[in-house]
Structure formats: C-alpha cells, structure tokens
Amino acid sequence: MKYRRIGKSGLKVSEIALGAWLTYGRSVENKLSESIIHQAIESGVNFIDIADAYAHGSAEITVGQAIKPFKRSDLVISTKLFWPMSDNVNDRGLSRKHIMESIGKSLKRIGTDYVDIYFCHRYDEETEVEETVRAMDDLVRQGKILYWGTSVWEADQIQKANDIAEKFGAYAPIVEQPQYNMLDRHIEAKIMPACQSSGMGLTVWSPLAGGVLTGKYVDGIPKGSRAETTQFVKADLTAENRAKVVKLMKLAQTHDLTLAQLALGWLLKREEISCAIIGATSLKQLEENLKAKDVELGDDLVAEINVIIDKKV
Asked: Which residue from 36, 101, 114, 112 is spatially nearest to 279, judged by alpha carbons?
C-alpha cells in the first residue's frame, strides 16, 4: 500500500481508504463488516471514513467495534456531522451547539477519545462560517479532533472558511471530500484549484460511481442492487455513460485489469487526490479493488481513457 499526505498537512493516509456509507451498520451484517474492516487494515488501509448520519449512528458503532483489536494510533478515523440526527431543531447543521454536542456522541459511539478528521458533511446556509470555523478550532485545541475538513462544499465556500481561519489564527480545514470519478469530474474546474491554493487535500467518495464503473449495470439494473434504491447511481446510468463503460471495460481487459482497477488507477494518477474511498460489501470485492494499489497506468493508457470519457457519445 502507498500512502499520501493530505494536502500540506503532515497526515498520511492510504491511497485507498474504506468508507462506511450504505454498508456497515446497515446493509452488511456485522460479522461480515468486521471481517472486511479487519482485512482492509491488514492489507495496509489505515483510513476508515464514517459519518454520524450513516445508518443513523450504527456505522460509527460497527466500525468502532471492528477496530478495537488494532492500535488506535495506527489508524486514521474520520466522521462527519451536518444531517439531522433527531427531530430536535438544533440537532442538525453546523452551529456551535450542534458541533459541540455531536462530537461527544460520535466519540462515544466509536469508542475513541478523538477522531483524526472531523468533516462538515455539507455547507450550512443557516450558520455563519465564522461560527463553524471557531467551533472546529476549539475542538482541535481540546484534542477531540486532530484536523477538520469539508465535504461537498463549493469552491467559494472552501475559500471563505480558509480566509476566516487565517483572519482569526484558527485551524483551517485540511481536506475536502467530494464525489469524483471518471463519469463525474465537476471538481476539476473550480473545487480542485481552490483546494490546491489553500493547501487542502482531496479524499474522494464514489470513485467507482456507485458501482457503475465496475460494469455491473451494463445490461440493466439487477434486482436488489444499489442502483435500484440509490438515486445518484441511477442518474449515472445514462445511455452515454453505458456506452463509455462498455468501451472502458474492453480497454481494461486488454491490459488484464478489471474496470474497477482501471477506474481507481486513473483517479490515483492525479497527485491532487489524497485517496479514493471505496465501499466493500464482500471480502472478494475488497480484495479485487485493493489490487488497484499495484496498478500504475502509463501516460499513453491514460490518454486512451481520457479520449473515451471526454467524448460525447
């Protein structure tokens, strides 16, 4: 496994990380979840990404139980806050009240004294960014979090948080967590440059477009699959994207790779990316995707890939 710094910070994470969205504490049975997490860590994955909203707290509990046999300092654990966790009007968003109360609940569920990264899971239009930045700065100084970051923020919002942190001498966000893959490259225009100028890393989610970039949906949507119940996956299943996936699958086969390995290798070719956060619902799936750590795509192959994904079909 290779490790990369997150932006200009000194924190290093495995370039392939494990995420708990839609899986642990929810669709994957706890014993299997534990086996997958253990196998990932034993294979060199040191970064596990959670959120309080994942399975309404159950993902934090499941991951917390699974990591107990391992040395805490060997791991990088992140969680997030923003989405409502109850009917309480203040149990949501990025207010100081919600931040201070949510971190305690997350630490208790995970069973740890601190998290390495605490993400603002979305931008809060109802809370001044200064309030959020100051609260996050306080949590760093209290030792409850080591770093903080943003997730699915726009470029101007990211810049504003950094400007405020600089103005008040507060700890600034070190990382943004956006969606990014071969079929969704929206961050390249503004968000990626904004992060680079602020020295922030990028820990990207859905690097396989919810499974679209594995080829499993080329012939339609299998019953019980993620695409059947997840809207953002369905949205990627356009005729144009299906045609691209077919071409990419053929290209991957000629290089003795799976489409998933090709997609992860392409993404990790970019130095701006700190890591790709994968999901895994089986040991076999985890093993196949982790093989991408050994994939090094040549410039000619990357050029072939870009012709396919840039072309309007």
From this structure: 36
Residue 54 is a catalytic residue? yes
Short-list 197, 276, 205, 207, CA closest to 7: 197
Q: Check if the beta carbon of residue 276 is closer than 8 Å to that of residue 17.
A: yes
pTM over 0.85: yes
How far apart CA 157 and CA 293 sit, in angstroms, is: 32
Q: Which position among 3, 24, 54, 180 bears the catalytic label?
A: 54
Q: Could you state, in order of their start, the residue ranges of all structural domains in the chain? A: 3-208+269-295
Tell me the per-residue pLDDT of 248-290, one tens digit each, with 9 for 90 and over. 999 999 999 999 999 999 999 999 999 999 999 999 999 999 9
Q: Does domain 3-208+269-295 have CATH number 3.20.20.100?
A: yes
**Under 8 Å between Cβ of 299 and 50:** no
The answer to whether the CB of 124 falls within 8 A of the CB of 151 is no
Alpha-carbon dihedral angle through residues 22, 102, 16, 301, given to the nearest 10 degrees: 80
